[in-house]
């Protein structure tokens, strides 16, 4: 593939940068413009999905494609978001033309950016080998006070997805609000335990200096101090507000990605290997641009070391399919009766297709099967 063709194919994944001028417009103009960030992120991309449809094409993961222009946006985003967030924390608290409600709504939108884009890019970067990419992931996660997500995701979620040990796997019939109350404290606890267990295998205590939680806490304390120094108490409150919204956005996506999907328990705490069918797949073109192929989640869990442009799309006979892209699905998840109406029959069809031999799903529904050995 020529360089020009490669750039042309990669450029749509840079659409996240459009959120930066929208955030600046909201801060400087105020009024109705403060609602543009969530409207653009959720509704505009949902509309684009309806217009552009699905993209089921795949790059050859062994084809030697030049990924420079794909990687560039993930490397550029961390400093862009850092500067944008600090500027907003300095500018908005002192902006006389912005009322209290406008500031709250505006930083709701900032949380949509730092959660929908920032945490998603951190997710891509934490899976890579270069230390500088993982450091960028740590910076992005510190901006939303969710640094432990790196440990939880790499050490717990990918190892134990679709089993009772994975807090992040939403159970069948579990509403999002109940899931959110369970996963926020549960994820932090499981992340610390996973790091402590690794240290114990080296004969070290859980609070040894090599525990990455020290780095997490330092980075988060630094962000809190910056927010206070730049924006005073108002800036600190707005920073905490956007962090909460970002975490809510992340966990909405986590809820959607694995809802009701379980690995078969083989007995004595043994489970089948992770396969594409243990994550919901979505091939909606526009939201895959915004989320750098996160919706190709079936392949991400099957081959977690693949960079996002190489993630493969799976057909219906290989992985369960979401009816809509993540923006629509996460909005539906906020209304549990609507969510169950849309998704429960799909979970039941998935069970019938892949596990016709399982007749008692009660232990899977409640997470009562033994944890992985």
TrEMBL record:
<keyword id="KW-0997">Cell inner membrane</keyword>
<feature type="domain" description="Fatty acid desaturase">
    <location>
        <begin position="106"/>
        <end position="330"/>
    </location>
</feature>
<feature type="transmembrane region" description="Helical">
    <location>
        <begin position="104"/>
        <end position="122"/>
    </location>
</feature>
<dbReference type="InterPro" id="IPR005804">
    <property type="entry name" value="FA_desaturase_dom"/>
</dbReference>
<keyword id="KW-0560">Oxidoreductase</keyword>
<keyword id="KW-0408">Iron</keyword>
<keyword id="KW-0479">Metal-binding</keyword>
<feature type="transmembrane region" description="Helical">
    <location>
        <begin position="12"/>
        <end position="29"/>
    </location>
</feature>
<comment type="similarity">
    <text>Belongs to the fatty acid desaturase type 1 family. AlkB subfamily.</text>
</comment>
<protein>
    <submittedName>
        <fullName>Alkane 1-monooxygenase</fullName>
    </submittedName>
</protein>
<feature type="transmembrane region" description="Helical">
    <location>
        <begin position="224"/>
        <end position="248"/>
    </location>
</feature>
<keyword id="KW-1133">Transmembrane helix</keyword>
<keyword id="KW-1003">Cell membrane</keyword>
<dbReference type="Pfam" id="PF00487">
    <property type="entry name" value="FA_desaturase"/>
</dbReference>
<keyword id="KW-0812">Transmembrane</keyword>
<feature type="transmembrane region" description="Helical">
    <location>
        <begin position="35"/>
        <end position="54"/>
    </location>
</feature>
<keyword id="KW-0503">Monooxygenase</keyword>
<dbReference type="InterPro" id="IPR033885">
    <property type="entry name" value="AlkB/XylM"/>
</dbReference>
<feature type="transmembrane region" description="Helical">
    <location>
        <begin position="75"/>
        <end position="92"/>
    </location>
</feature>
<keyword id="KW-0472">Membrane</keyword>
């Amino acid at each position: 593939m020529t360089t020009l063709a490669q750039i042309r194919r990669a450029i749509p994944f840079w659409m996240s940068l459009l959120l930066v001028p929208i955030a600046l417009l909201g801060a400087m103009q105020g009024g109705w413009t403060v609602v543009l960030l969530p409207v653009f992120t959720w509704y505009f991309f949902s509309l684009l999905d309806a217009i552009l449809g699905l993209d089921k094409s795949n790059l050859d993961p062994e084809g030697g494609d030049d990924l420079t222009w794909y990687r560039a946006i993930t490397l550029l985003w961390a400093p862009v978001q850092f500067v944008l967030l600090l500027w907003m924390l300095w500018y908005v608290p002192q902006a006389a033309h912005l009322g209290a409600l406008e500031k709250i709504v505006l930083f709701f939108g900032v949380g949509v950016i730092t959660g929908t884009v920032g945490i998603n890019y951190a997710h891509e970067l934490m899976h890579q080998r270069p230390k500088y990419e993982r450091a960028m992931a740590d910076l992005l996660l510190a901006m939303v006070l969710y640094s432990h997500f790196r440990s939880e995701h790499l050490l717990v979620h990918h190892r134990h997805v679709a089993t009772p040990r994975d807090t992040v796997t939403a159970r069948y019939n579990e509403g999002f609000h109940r899931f959110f109350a369970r996963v926020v404290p549960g994820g932090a606890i499981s992340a610390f335990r996973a790091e402590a267990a690794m240290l114990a295998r080296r004969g070290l205590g859980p609070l040894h200096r090599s525990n990455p939680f020290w780095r997490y806490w330092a980075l988060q304390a630094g962000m809190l101090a910056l927010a206070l120094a730049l924006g005073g108490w108002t800036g600190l409150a707005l920073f905490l507000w956007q962090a909460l919204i970002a975490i809510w956005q992340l966990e909405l996506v986590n809820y959607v990605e694995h809802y009701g999907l379980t690995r078969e328990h083989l007995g004595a705490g043994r489970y089948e290997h992770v396969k594409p069918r243990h994550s919901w797949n979505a091939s909606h073109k526009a939201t895959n641009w915004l989320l750098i192929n996160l919706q190709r989640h079936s392949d991400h869990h099957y081959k977690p070391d693949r960079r996002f442009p190489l993630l493969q799309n799976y057909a219906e006979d290989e992985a369960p399919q979401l009816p809509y892209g993540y923006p629509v699905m996460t909005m539906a998840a906020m209304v549990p009766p609507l969510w169950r109406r849309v998704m429960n029959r799909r979970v039941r069809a998935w069970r019938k297709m892949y596990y016709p031999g399982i007749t008692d799903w009660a232990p899977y529904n409640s997470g009562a099967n033994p944890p992985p050995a």
